[in-house]
Amino acid sequence: MATVTFRDETATGKSLHSFDVPDVPDSITVRELVRLRVREEVARHNAAPGSEYRGLVRPADAADGARRHAPRRLDWEVQADVACWAFERNGFFVLVADRQVESLEEVVDLTVASDVAFVKLVPLVGG
């Protein structure tokens, strides 16, 4: 089992935000990585909901950036489905060990690289 560092980056490589998730299987698909990342960030948000949500995709009721009208619990599965949809439509790309992955079905080896960067290309709205 690996500890994965999920990191958001700008298109120029500047790190914006990161967090670690322990006990991730050593071999995992990109789809599972995206869903794991979203599940973790939604769980963190739901544990201490505030008016700002910093996640891979914004909730559908986000009016300005990640700000929402009122705090509410988010459904991680809805957010994860939107994130996978966005990946397939080039809304963001994923780098594992500084190598861009091409498909949600691609299997990555986290024993070699446990740093996963997400580079958002457009603001993403969903769930």
Search tags:
127 residues; alpha+beta; Ubiquitin-like (UB roll); five-stranded mixed beta sheet; two-stranded antiparallel sheet; 2 helices; 24% helix; globular
Structure described in brief:
The protein has 127 residues and is an alpha+beta fold.
Architecture overview:
The mean pLDDT is 85. Helix 1 packs antiparallel against helix 2 (76-88). It is built from two helices and eleven strands. By secondary structure, the protein is α+β, with helices and mostly antiparallel strands. The strands form four sheets. A five-stranded mixed β-sheet has the order 2-1-10-7-8, with helices on one face. The protein has a two-stranded antiparallel ribbon with strand order 3-9. Strands 4-11 form a two-stranded parallel ribbon.
Question: What layout of secondary structure does this protein have?
Answer:
Elements: E1 2-9, E2 15-24, E3 27-29, H1 30-47, E4 58-59, E5 62-64, E6 67-68, H2 76-88, E7 92-96, E8 99-100, E9 107-109, E10 115-120, E11 125-126
Parallel strand pairs: 1-10, 4-11
Antiparallel strand pairs: 1-2, 3-9, 5-6, 7-8, 7-10
Which strand order spans the largest sheet, edge to edge or round the barrel?
2-1-10-7-8
Mean residue pLDDT = 85
CATH architecture: Roll
Helix content: 10-25%
pLDDT < 50 runs, ≥5 residues: none
Shape: globular
In what range is the share of β-strand residues?
Answer: 35-45%
- Count of discrete alpha- or pi-helical segments spanning 4 or more residues: 2
Number of domains: 1
Examine the coordinates and then state which fold CATH places here, giving the name of the CATH topology: Ubiquitin-like (UB roll)
Largest sheet: 5 strands, mixed
Q: What is the top-level CATH class?
A: Alpha Beta
Give, in order, the helices and strands: EEEHEEEHEEEEE
**Which structural class is indicated by helix and strand composition?**
alpha+beta
Radius of gyration: 14 Å
Distance between the termini: 30 Å
Number of DSSP-assigned strands:
11
